[in-house]
Amino acid sequence: MITYTLKCEHGHTFDSWFQSAEAFDKLHAAKMVTCSVCGALGVEKAVMAPRVRPAREAAPRPDTVEASRPVSAPASPAEQALAELRKMVEKNSENVGENFAKEARRIHEGEAPERSIYGEAKPEEAKALIEEGIPVAPLPWGNRRTN
After folding, report:
1. CA separation for the pair 82, 107 (Å, rounded)
2. Which is nearest to 144 in space by CA: 4, 69, 20, 36?
């Protein structure tokens, strides 16, 4: 396993674990590495200090407490708020995936039951929905893809 400090095109920095350097390169090339704060795809490796593992019997230093934080735990209050928002949306809404624009129109026109939905829409589809008076809003995170 390897951890990288990453930085997105909007200036957010965060750490992420990868199986290997090659695994990072493969995921990055497939556009599967996104910013953990805003979901942007423009993510690059940031300058980082090397981490040297202390002897097993050495007591943990106070400045390494952050390093012991689980990778899945939010690193900042903003990340925590975003994680809570995402949980709330996913719990209280239906994921319609790539059918978002079609399903939003069906709901707006009364052809489908009224409910909260989320999913994926191309920028031109989202723009068309807004122009048609259908209320939509982008979510501040990227797609959740699995390997």
Report:
1. 27
2. 36
What would the two tokens of residue 52 be? 């040297």
Query: What residue type is 81 in one-letter code?
Result: A
Burial grade of 35 (CB within 10 A; 0-12, 13-18, 19 or more): buried
Beta bridge partners of 5: 15
DSSP-assigned letter for residue 63: G
Q: Enumerate the β-bridge partners of residue 2.
A: 18
Could you read off the pLDDT of 27-57 as tens digits, one per residue? 989 888 888 888 888 899 887 666 666 666 6
User: Can you read off the two tokens belonging to residue 110?
Assistant: 């009364």
Q: What is the pLDDT of residues 115-125, one digit of tens each?
A: 999 999 988 99
Sequence-distant contacts of 104-113: CB under 8 A, at least 24 apart: 104/129, 104/134, 104/136, 105/129, 105/132, 105/134, 108/132, 108/133, 108/134
Q: pLDDT per residue over 77-120, tens digit each?
A: 878 888 888 899 999 999 999 999 999 999 999 999 999 999 99
Average pLDDT over residues 12-18: 87
